[in-house]
Fold this sequence. Notes:
Elements: H1 7-10, H2 13-27, H3 29-62, H4 68-118, H5 127-141, H6 144-172, H7 177-180, H8 183-219, H9 221-229, H10 232-288, H11 293-335, E1 352-360, E2 370-378, E3 382-387, H12 393-400, E4 408-413, E5 416-417, H13 423-427, E6 430-433, H14 444-449, H15 458-468, H16 471-475, H17 498-511, E7 516-520, H18 528-541, E8 546-551, E9 562-567, E10 570-575, H19 577-583, H20 586-606
Parallel strand pairs: 3-8, 3-9, 6-7, 7-8
Antiparallel strand pairs: 1-2, 1-4, 4-5, 9-10
Amino acid sequence: MRAAVDFKAKAHIFRNTAFMFKGAMKCAPISVLLIFSAYIAENVYYAVVFNVMFLQTALSIIEGNGSFREFAIKICLIILGKIAVDLYGYVVFHPVRERFEIKFEGYLNNLIFKKAQQVELGCYEDPDFFDNYNRATWIVEKGAYKRVIEGTGWTVGSVFSIVILAVYLYNLDPFLLVFVLCPLVVMFLRIKRNEVEFEKEKAMTPYERQKDYTRRTVLLKDFAKEIKTTNIFAVVKCRFTQAIETNIKLIKKYGMRVAVYEALSDFFGEVIPVAGGFGYGCYRLLVLENLAIADFSVLISAITNCRNKLNQLAYYFTMQQKNCLWVQNLREFLAYEPKVVGGDKKPGEFESLEFRNVSFRYGEKKDYTLKNISFKINKGESIAVVGHNGAGKTTLSKLMMRLYDVNEGEILYNGVNIREYDLLKYREKFASVFQDYRIFAMTVAENVLIEETDENNLPRAEKALKQSGVLDKIQTLPDGINNLLTKEFDDNGALLSGGESQKVTIARMFAKKFDVAILDEPSSALDPVAESKMYDNLMEGTKDKTVIYISHRLSSATRSDNILVFADGELIEQGTHESLMNSGGEYCKMFTLQASGYREEGSVNEE
């Protein structure tokens, strides 16, 4: 997944704000309207009513242009207005905003999770994809989604108050608008600064990932043994230090440009409006003598408030532009079209799976992992796929389940190209146990069923655990099949051994309705006795099912109807155990070597 487009060209502030606003309205429309009304009320009250009208009323009384009764009534109304605005903020705005932020965060995360499930497996092997994925999640992790909505609300509220103040100043003297509109230049300057900031953060992304990787290796159990027993952490830490040093260089590289834009922003946003407006007011008051002291005081207050609001508007506008760069990352990620997409057909009951002249390579690699592979698997057969490490066995299983698409040739399910089938429906026909299995920080039953559990499906999980040979162990846990696994969220979570964990993942297969089982190194963490027992259970639990065993250990091959022997990405032999042993080829050599190893191990144990 490569972002070849220019972010700055596409990251249009209004389009991206509209995208977020549309999502917010879809997620919680009432909350959005209440939040925006609070921003408008607060901005108008403090900028116009409290800071200008209150001063104008007080000075009018001093100059004898009204009665104290009129003054008292206006003051009471202003105080009541403040109470109303504050109550609205405390009673409505803050609780509503917190609930909205939680809802909107969930909404955005669901969009990201859904897209992450749709992208093909190859994306996870592409560093560019991870960079784009990380930047897409920043809108949630860094709270940019909240700032976009907040910035939009403040912008709307500021516009209301600025319009009222501008009309007031225009009626007082149209020339005053020259000074209060200077902050508009600030918007342009801060937009340019944000673009530089974005370039900097984009350049820092790979090194931030390196730092994050270091933090994960320290915290995750998967790396703990190697870190404590080897010197590998010195290497990891060196990479961490290099990432920090590179980021410091990048900050220096972009820092001066950011500083220049910031200094110019302060000049146009602060110096010109205050000095110019104050000087012009003094000129009319002292030289032209056509401005009353009361009007001069109100003029200065109005200019100051209008300048503050315009600066605030410029700040939120440019912050909005910066946050919208992260929105653009999210939109780029969500707009990505997966390359592995399904068709309209629904697969029927499994009859056959055929590889016809299939070749495959990962990404842009020149060397093919699989080369011109052809074979057919029929219903009810047990197939062993064997070969040394790197022969292409695991790649074969990924192609079967259409985690990747072939580069050449085709794969046929019941005589139909698998590209024509609905992707999810097609994959439902398979149950799989992967070589790099994972245990989730959930209950045993949830790990087996891979779904929410209740009293109705718990017996299915228990039966599957029994079939995989690990139920006795699970029943010794304090909460049995409802016991949490790993200590990620609970100190009482169970830590299973490698073999026990693998049996739990095998139980997932027994708990699922499937036509074809694909077992990729299903006994890698088991000893020979447990391995033999596991295969007995598999044979018993998969009667009348099609089973594909993928392994470099050949204990499964003797039990299979057909054996496919792979070497260097090519299918070099196939047949039954007896026929391949009689042919004296590569399979015979592998089996003889492994069998001698088991005999030697047995002799040592006897001694």
